[in-house]
Amino acid sequence: MHSSGAGQILFGMNPMWVSTIVLLVTYAVIITEKINRSTIALLGAGAMILVGVLDQEKAIKGIDFNTIGLLVGMMILVSISRRSGIFQYLAVWSAQKANASPVGILILLQICTAVLSALLDNVTTVLLVVPVTIAICRQLKAPAYPFLFAEIFASNIGGTATLIGDPPNILIGSQVGLTFNQFVVHLTPVIIVVMAVQLVMIHLVWGKSMTATAEDKARVMELSAHSTIADWLLLKQSVVVIAAVILGFIFARQLHLEPATVAMGGAAVLMMLDNWSHHGEAESKKVHETFQDVEWITIFFFVGLFVVVYGVETGGLLKMLAEKTVALTGGDLAKTGYVILWSSAVLSAIVDNIPFVATMIPLIKSMAPSFGGPDKIEALWWCLSLGACLGGNGTLIGASANLTVAGIGDREGVPFSFVTYTLYAFPMMLVSVAISHVYVWWRYF
Fold first, then answer.
1. What is the structure's pLDDT at 280?
2. Is the CB of residue 191 less than 8 Å from the CB of residue 433?
3. What DSSP assignment string belongs to 32-99?
4. What DSSP state is assigned to residue 329?
5. CA distance 266 to 248
6. The pLDDT of residue 8
7. Taking a C-beta distance cutoff of 8 angstroms, is the pair 310, 54 a contact?
């Protein structure tokens, strides 16, 4: 037996089991942290091809170039705009608004991240917020890890609130025909509650013990935000281009554009403006510096992981798990919703939530006749969205924003251990899903 699109499996073995073994071995080695995760992901991708689960054409098809393009484009935008001093300016401004209190800054940055993630996509948000956070922590001599951890959660929670905030929502909205307003009406209320509870949990774990010396606070309060701007022309150019990119994201559907096109287009424009007055070697040097700032380790980790997960999807594991999940409910709408919510959360913490959601959508659609038609199963889409988006917080590999923050943190000397992150994150994720369970029970069932 061979699944459609797969190559010849070695020794005629079952492609589902072979792909599952490759996935488990890949994840197991990533968890040990003995070898760089991008190396392991690429080796896992190569193994999927070598054992015959995928051929090269299908492996390339499994790579989500929209995500890759979005990441690279935004990394370039951040790299160039950083030279103007805009992030240092935002760091000083934010710290002073919170009276240089680490606790206040932690709360402020989480709220800002959640709101921005609802209006943009969560990967773009963390790319813009994380450099600010690291700059603030360096000024206050505060540990950056709690701030970055909190922003991962805030980005995924905030992104759940709208159609454009998280890739699973984009998939659900486009394939089911749900509008931006429907996502806001049905998901934003519970997301506000989830975010409030998350703020409390972060405060209890880290915030209440955070302190800064009077000298550090005084030094921060005496800083001049305007003096941090190194290039006013580049600052204006960066603000205009980033604003245009944000508008492009908001109106992407009306413009018939994908986020990657918007991000890469904005990156190209800002790179051109940055080098407008430079020629020859100086221009070439600036371009090289810009591309060196791209988190290539994170990018190639995504490339490898996309291929590994697509191999598992092609092998049939995700489809089998989804079908068994639906069969367990016995045709009860409420039970179906709860199973979708919790299974989506747990599986999205282990496997990227995008292919899982793509697999679940046709299966949930096929259930519509037994429940009285498509309009009767709308609650199931909200269960899928809440489970997949919030479940992505459970591990470092659960969502794109997690890996993006971890990649930047590692480069800036803030290491992200897979095990340490999971020990903190998984219980917090379960709390957010439990709140969602109560919400869907109260509102729909």
1. 54
2. no
3. HTSS-HHHHHHHHHHHHHHTTSS-HHHHHHTS-HHHHHHHHHHHHHHHHHHTTTHHHHHHHHHHHHTT
4. T
5. 9
6. 62
7. yes
- Compute the chain's Rg from CA coordinates: 22
**pLDDT-flagged residues of the chain (< 50):** 1-6
Domain boundaries, the chain: 65-292
Tell me how far apart the alpha carbons of residues 350 and 399 are, in angstroms, rounded to a whole number: 10
Q: How far is CA 343 from CA 70, 337, 389, in A?
A: 28, 10, 12
Q: Which residue has the tokens 């890759």?
A: 68
pLDDT tens readout for residues 297-307: 888 988 998 89
Q: What's the rounded Cα separation, in Å, for the pair 351 and 364?
A: 19
Q: Supply the pTM of this predicted model.
A: 0.74
CA atoms in the 13 A half-sphere facing the CB of 266: 34
Mention every residue, 6+ apart, whose C-beta is less than 8 A from residue 303: 41, 42, 45, 63, 68
Nearest-CA neighbor of 22 among 34, 9, 12? Answer: 9
Helix, coil or strand: residue 377: coil
305: tokens are 């992981």
Q: Determine whether 264 is exposed, middle or buried from the number of CB atoms within 10 Å of its CB (0-12, 13-18, 19+).
A: buried
Query: Tokens in use for 320?
Result: 């089998």
Residue 162 per-residue DSSP state: S
pLDDT at 136: 83
